[in-house]
Amino acid sequence: MAIFSDFLAILLAASVVSAINFSEVIPGPGLPSLASLNLTSEALHAMGPIEIPPDYHIGDVNPMSKRDNPTPPACIYYGGALIDRANMLSCVNFLYALGTTPCTLSNSAASGQWCNVGNVALYGLNWNNLPTVSSYCIDVAVAAQWVYNNCNYDNVNQWGGLAYVHGNDDIIANVTRQ
């Protein structure tokens, strides 16, 4: 009987795990697929926050509305439309996993999407309107992690935000609701 109850416990645990649905992490145009990195959306959701390097000093921030057109760093309140923190962290972890892969904005593009998942979109902004701007995706992840850490609403939901990419003031990581 003990073997049967152990089996039922394992079966129940497996069905609970398989019932959890993770939003799909969708890489931006030109970035590697999850499969090519041997990653899954589930694995990205399971990873914890990344550490922000001690030399990434961005300054103080106050929450602002999108009408204020804030300069980075800023948390942006979208009038009640909060974003899911777990989904945001999945985008951070995806960009972090890309390491030294370039996250680039070219052809004078004002912005480009690097990741989206669920109701979260992570864009790069060409802050100084240069013909081409590029940084390692791991450095974009640091900026997005800063937004995650500093624009927390209630540990489940999150404001969007803007932060300079680590080591490159020409690119802004913009986390927003999609």
Largest sheet: 7 strands, mixed
- Name the overall outline: globular
Helix content: 25-40%
State the order of secondary-structure elements, H for helix, E for strand: HEHEEEHEEEEHEEE
User: How many independent structural domains?
Assistant: 1
> Structural class, judged by helices and strands?
alpha+beta
Strand order of the largest sheet: 1-6-7-11-10-3-2
Number of helices: 4
| Rg, Cα atoms, Å | 18 Å
Q: Report mean pLDDT, rounded to a whole number.
A: 82
Low-confidence blocks of residues:
1-19
Hey, roughly how much beta strand do the residues contain?
25-35%
Count of DSSP E strands? 11
Termini separation? 52 Å
Task: Explain how this protein is built.
With 178 residues, this protein is an alpha+beta fold. It has one domain. It contains 4 helices and 11 strands. The strands form 3 sheets. The chain has a 7-stranded mixed β-sheet with strand order 1-6-7-11-10-3-2. A hairpin with a 2-residue loop joins β10 (160-165) and β11 (168-177). The longest helix has 18 residues, at 2-19. The protein is globular. The termini are far apart. Residues 1-19 have low confidence and may be disordered.
